[in-house]
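User: Hi! Is it possible to get a structure for several chains at once, not just one? Here's what I have:
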Amino acid sequence: MKVAVGCDHGGFVLKDRVVRTLKELGAEVVDLGTDRGDVSVDYPEFGLKVAKAVASGECDAGVLMCGTGIGISIAANKVKGIRAAVVTNTYMAKLTKNHNNANIIALGGRVISEDEAEEIVKEWYTAEYEGGRHQKRLDMICKIEDENFK
Ligand code: RB5
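Assistant: Yes, the chains can be modeled jointly so their relative placement is included. Here is the combined structure:
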């Protein structure tokens, strides 16, 4: 699996650990920045880069990080086909793959620890989408996109 990774300065603290974890899981990682935590950058830029990489099919999935995970997930979700989920624990990580088939997870560098980020990434990466009744709901989301995105 090819996984795009992106963050702003608020999420940078988690990036190395997330990249290492993904590589240990066997993923090919595409690092789309930012490359340092001491310079303030704008999270929409990195949310968009990762979202485009996933929506285009260049990457299979993505992990985003900002201070809370919220702003960068909001930006990513403006790209058609993206289901970016803010995740703060392993239960959410598992369920957002099982039920939402989240193709991006968003983590908060000011919310969770590096250890928690590692466990969350492992849980999400290894969980499976369950399909079935959940597909109907994802189809409904696709319809919302079709009706509301240009
Ligand atoms: C940057 O200070 C911060 O606003 C950003 O990392 C993120 O938390 C936004 O949702």
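Residues 133-148 form the longest helix (16 residues). The chain has a mean pLDDT of 98.

User: Great, thank you!
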